[in-house]
Design brief:
43% helix, 256 residues, eight-stranded parallel barrel
């Protein structure tokens, strides 16, 4: 069964940060997510979360973007420990891991191997804490020029090489439509390696239904294939955010 999470970095972005949590509750959804955590007031976020009985579905692990460089791996364990401690306060079980921008002095194979090596170092911490690390490929054609990881196939390969049940792929349908297409086949063939999904339509990164992706069919097929994790709503509303969330909720309820 598909579960929805609202990315409050992009939806209700015109409101003060903690008020966005109130908006998620008002919209009738049960979970939210955000990006970086160190500059945020975690205790206040947790108070609002508990007030509304909401889940924190995921946020970004710190330090971000350092896996491609082996010289930065010494920071990973301590950064993950701090991120896990924050996740435990919030009752969160997923952490997004961004591998970083390409390092021009290294070959792609060296950077690939560094990512695998770094994840192997920190995977035991995630396993002990029952937290899943989610590596996310991003598109380099529109939004993230110079980012190392854009291919879902390479992301799946990395996860397979790491070999931990607590390291999986965050498959962002928006990014992968731009990078690759072939969405349903790529998702359903690798459900065992996918821990999370993100959605937005193409072009424009607005809500599903505003662009070229047949989201009703994508959701139907991944639900049929047995996906029962979170789908993070990481889009910029083109109109009233409450109405967009209502439309998406109804679409998912129809396929669940």
């Amino acid at each position: 069964m598909i579960k929805l999470s609202v990315c409050i970095e992009m939806i209700f972005a015109d409101r003060p940060f903690e008020e966005r949590i109130d908006c998620v509750a008002k919209a009738g959804l049960g979970a939210f997510e955000f990006w970086d955590w160190p500059a945020k007031d975690i205790e206040r976020i947790n108070e609002r979360r508990r007030l509304h009985n909401l889940e924190v579905a995921t946020f970004v692990m710190e330090p971000r973007g350092r896996l491609v460089d082996a010289g930065a791996h010494a920071e990973l364990k301590e950064g993950l420990r701090r991120s896990i401690a924050t996740a435990q306060i919030l009752g969160c079980r997923n952490l997004i891991v961004l591998v970083g921008r390409e390092v021009s002095a290294l070959s792609r194979q060296e950077q690939h191997d560094n990512i695998v090596r770094g994840l192997k170092q920190v995977a035991p911490l995630a396993e002990d804490a029952a937290v899943t690390l989610l590596i996310e490929p991003l598109n380099v054609l529109v939004d993230h020029a110079g980012f190392y990881l854009s291919s879902s196939q390479e992301a799946f390969q990395i996860v397979a090489e790491v070999g931990s049940p607590n390291v999986k792929v965050l498959f962002d349908i928006y990014h992968q439509q731009i990078s690759e297409g072939n969405l349903i086949a790529n998702i359903t063939a690798h459900l065992d390696l996918i821990g999370y999904l993100h959605v937005a339509d193409v072009p424009g990164r607005h809500e599903p239904g505003t662009g070229e992706i047949n989201y009703a069919n994508v959701m139907r097929q991944i639900n049929k294939a047995g996906y029962n994790g979170y789908v993070g709503l990481e889009y910029q509303p083109s109109n009233d955010p409450y109405q967009s969330l209502k439309t998406i909720t109804e679409m998912v309820e129809a396929v669940n």
